[in-house]
Each structure stands twice: as structure tokens, then as C-alpha cells.
Write a structure and sequence with these properties.
The chain is an all-alpha fold. 73% of the residues lie in helices and 0% in strands. 3% of the residues are buried.
Length: 184
């Protein structure tokens, strides 16, 4: 079988023209050429050393990656140790919880007092408004009844806010009492 002409290897062509080598013509090299060659050899030697040093450093990378990887560990603790820590935590927190319950109770009593005074104000304002109704025919009676209505509305809003605050404090006290009951 004959080889195809396109796949046959051809000899490499020479870079010199017609077989004449330039040094044969008597050309001189630059006097700086040996210095350049020696500097190039020094650079190559340094590059080789850097390459060897880098190879040593990179070769250790998989081991270092394994060493530096974080791992989660589970620690088994005995039940008595957990109970001891729980008791210590309860001893530390219990005085603070009692103080908070006392503050809430004090706040609740203050809000109850405020609620009673506001209810009394509302009742007094309503009784004044009922007493002022016959005087509505006059212009001053109408103005005073409007003022009384505003006062009543303001006091009613204050009463509603006080009741809301009292309910939230009562719920907080109940929650704290439940938490204390669960711990004991």
C-alpha cells in the first residue's frame, strides 16, 4: 500500500540560506553577549529553585486541607452533670425572675388604682353631662357639653389603655408563674 502524498513527512527546511552558516562569514558577536548569557543562566537557576520550593509547598496542600478542615464532634454528657448545670442555672436565674414578678405585681396594682380613678372620673363626667343636658338650650350649655364630651372621650381612652396594660401585665405574671412552677 502506498502512502498518500499529503501524509508523508517532509524534511524540515533549514533556517540558513543555501547552506551558508553566518559564523563562517566572519561575523563577530556582541561583547555583552556572554554577560547576558550568564545573567540568563542565573535567572534560570533561580527559577528552578523557586519551582522546587513551590512544588514542596504544593505537595503538602491536601494534608493541610485535611488538617485545617473543621469537624463537628458530639460529646456525650452524663445525665447527673446535666441536672447539676440545670440546678446551677435555676439558682442564678430564680432571684431575677422573682424580682420581675414583684415588679409586675407592683405595676399591676398601680394600673388597677389608675383604672379605678379613671372609672371614677368617667362616672363623674357622665353625671355632669346628664346634669348639663337641661341647659343645652343655651349657647354656653352647648359649648360646655362639647367640652364634657371631649373629656369623657379622653378619659374613656385612658381607661381602655389602662385596662389593656393591666391585661398584658396579668398575662405576663401568669406566664412567669407557670415558668416558675415548671422549674420546681
Amino acid at each position: 500500500m502506498a502512502a498518500r502524498p499529503s501524509t508523508a513527512q517532509r524534511p524540515r527546511e533549514s533556517i540558513y540560506h543555501s547552506g551558508v552558516i553566518p559564523r563562517d562569514q566572519g561575523l563577530m558577536c556582541s561583547p555583552h553577549l556572554p554577560g547576558c548569557v550568564s545573567a540568563l543562566e542565573d535567572c534560570l537557576a533561580q527559577l528552578h529553585n523557586v519551582s522546587l520550593h513551590t512544588d514542596d509547598a504544593i505537595r503538602d496542600l491536601p494534608r493541610l486541607a485535611g488538617v485545617l478542615a473543621t469537624e463537628r464532634m458530639s460529646v456525650m454528657v452524663n445525665e447527673p452533670i446535666i441536672e447539676l448545670y440545670k440546678a446551677q442555672m435555676a439558682e442564678e436565674i430564680e432571684p431575677q425572675i422573682f424580682e420581675m414578678v414583684q415588679r409586675a405585681a407592683t405595676g399591676l396594682t398601680a394600673l388597677e388604682r389608675k383604672e379605678r380613678t379613671l372609672k371614677a372620673k368617667v362616672e363623674a363626667a357622665q353625671s355632669r353631662a346628664k346634669a348639663a343636658q337641661p341647659a343645652r338650650g343655651t349657647a354656653t350649655g352647648a359649648v360646655s357639653s362639647k367640652l364634657e364630651a371631649r373629656r369623657i372621650a379622653t378619659v374613656a381612652k385612658q381607661l381602655a389603655q389602662a385596662e389593656k396594660d393591666m391585661q398584658s401585665l396579668a398575662a405576663e405574671i401568669q406566664q412567669l408563674e407557670q415558668q416558675m412552677a415548671q422549674k420546681h
